[in-house]
Inverse folding.
DNA sequence: CTGGGGAAGGGGCCC
DNA sequence: CGGGCCCCTTCCCCA
């Protein structure tokens, strides 16, 4: 009774849970033990079978070796033949010594044959080794199945990690051959660009490397790689698909978009009767005239390291990754690393406009260079409450990567922390310059990226802005739509006219003195 | 002074 | 109505 009462006393919810847990554990243990016993039985049986087979094999090989030895001895005694002939007779399939390399031996020889070779009393082959017989057998099978060339390629691929990756992914061998045949022609250039966009990893590597890398990249992204799908690239206004985690440069996206943009066509029409200027966004590392030097350096240096996490593929120009931050407090440190309060980023939440949201924690965690090198981060404060968890005390420290132009731009624009900060909701992460709308900051970021999507086919000039290209067209067309009302002077630039008119008004002289 | 490129601001249109 | 995008305008700078 005392025991019972004690038990009754112990039957608290905790004790019940404990009892149940113990029962469950016991049951699980029992199941595990049963299964384990079964498995162990099977394993022991398999091991027994293995041993038996191995023994049988050894015996058979021993028997064959003895027979061979006896025959060899007999023939030696009778005709003193060469060992090669002996081998030929015995095997009937001599394949030449060239294949009997150590590597092949090790490649095909079953590990279990070591014991057999150790026991092998036969040394008749004189150099080839008895184990080579097995090698030859297996090689012959391989050779007949795939051919010598295939075998050679395989051995090469085994040395090349890229090849091995292709093998793993089942990639056609064609992929590895593409780079070797690429010529610096337009098609290859386009393709190279496409690859580049993927990873800034491959960004401005040689086309060969780029291609190879891209192929692998695509293979690794099968099924989810919408970037390589031209139809999925952005077109039109809403053409920039959100591609979180994408690794392709937006330049492609830009290519698709701008080429098909009716607005650009209008621009060309209004700009003149010439349609010579294409709005292609091809990034030709070779032909890229001027501004891309910056991009080249950046890409070579550091961009490629963070591209995958930073770039929103297809969205460099149109839509960079956006950090949506509520009530951001911005502190600018010239050389300090960028840090971002992780709580500020609505991770996993798409932007209300389908924009990519950069997981800054991940980027920073995987690559510290992200913060210091990415010109693509746009910091945006928003009043949206649906953006995910965030506290209202964001603290962002930017790292400035400023070249001379950036400095100038900053001087002009005043940066995010100066001027009409209320209006400038969008910040360039590279120079902290604030912009009133996202489009402007996206255009601005071409300053850092060096992306010039608009190219003139007549002189191969490239421009980051379509309007500048249009104005540039007047160089070729000779159109000077701006004429001075006070003199005969005509100008292609509106501001040139305005500047000229200062001459008439006398405003210019004072400005010059100042 | 002029020619021309780079860059930013902003308006208008469209969805 | 708001946001996004296109395009024009404006300004700066350099050769």
């Amino acid at each position: 009774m005392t025991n019972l009462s004690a038990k009754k006393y112990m039957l608290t919810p905790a004790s019940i849970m404990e009892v149940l847990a113990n029962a469950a554990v016991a049951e699980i243990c029992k199941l595990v033990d049963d299964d384990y016993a079964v498995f162990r039985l099977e394993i022991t049986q398999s091991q027994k079978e293995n041993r038996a087979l191995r023994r049988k094999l050894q015996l058979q090989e021993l028997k064959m070796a003895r027979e061979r030895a006896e025959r060899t001895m007999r023939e030696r005694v009778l005709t003193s033949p060469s060992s090669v002939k002996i081998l030929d007779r015995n095997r009937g399939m001599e394949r030449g010594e060239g294949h009997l390399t150590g590597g092949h031996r090790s490649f095909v020889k079953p590990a279990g044959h070591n014991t057999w070779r150790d026991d092998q009393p036969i040394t008749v082959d004189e150099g080839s080794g008895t184990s080579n017989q097995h090698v030859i057998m297996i090689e012959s099978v391989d050779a007949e199945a795939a051919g010598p060339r295939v075998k050679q390629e395989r051995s090469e691929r085994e040395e090349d990690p890229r090849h091995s990756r292709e093998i793993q992914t089942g990639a056609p061998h064609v992929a590895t051959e593409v780079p070797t045949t690429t010529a610096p022609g337009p098609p290859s250039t386009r393709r190279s660009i496409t690859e580049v966009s993927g990873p800034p990893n491959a960004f401005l590597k040689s086309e060969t490397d780029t291609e190879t890398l891209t192929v692998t990249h695509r293979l690794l992204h099968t099924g989810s790689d919408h970037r390589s799908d031209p139809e999925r690239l952005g077109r039109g206004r809403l053409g920039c698909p959100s591609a979180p985690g994408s690794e392709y440069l937006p330049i492609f996206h830009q290519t698709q978009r701008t080429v098909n943009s009716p607005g650009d066509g209008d621009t060309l029409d209004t700009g003149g009767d010439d349609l010579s200027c294409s709005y292609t966004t091809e990034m030709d590392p070779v032909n890229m005239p001027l501004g891309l030097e910056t991009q080249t350096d950046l890409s070579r240096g550091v961009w490629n390291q963070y591209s995958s996490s930073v770039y929103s593929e297809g969205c460099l120009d149109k839509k960079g990754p956006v950090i949506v931050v509520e009530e951001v407090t911005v502190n600018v440190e010239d050389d300090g690393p960028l840090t971002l309060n992780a709580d500020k980023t609505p991770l996993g939440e798409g932007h209300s406009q389908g924009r990519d949201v950069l997981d800054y924690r991940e980027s920073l965690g995987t690559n510290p260079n992200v913060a210091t090198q990415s010109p693509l981060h746009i910091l945006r404060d928003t009043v949206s409450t649906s953006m995910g968890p965030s506290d209202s005390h964001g603290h962002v420290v930017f790292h400035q990567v400023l070249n001379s132009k950036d400095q100038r731009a900053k001087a002009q624009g005043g940066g995010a922390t100066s001027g009409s900060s209320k209006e400038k909701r969008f910040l360039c992460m590279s120079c902290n310059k604030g912009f009133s709308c996202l489009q402007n900051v996206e255009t601005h970021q071409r300053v850092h990226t060096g992306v010039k999507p608009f190219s003139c086919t007549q002189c191969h000039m490239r421009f980051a802005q379509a309007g500048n290209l249009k104005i540039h067209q007047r160089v070729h067309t000779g159109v000077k739509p701006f004429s001075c009302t006070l003199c005969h002077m005509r100008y292609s630039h509106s501001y040139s006219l305005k500047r000229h008119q200062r001459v008439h008004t006398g405003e210019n002289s004072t400005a010059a003195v100042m």
In short: Confidence is low (pLDDT under 50) at residues 1-10, 77-422, 509-514 of chain A.
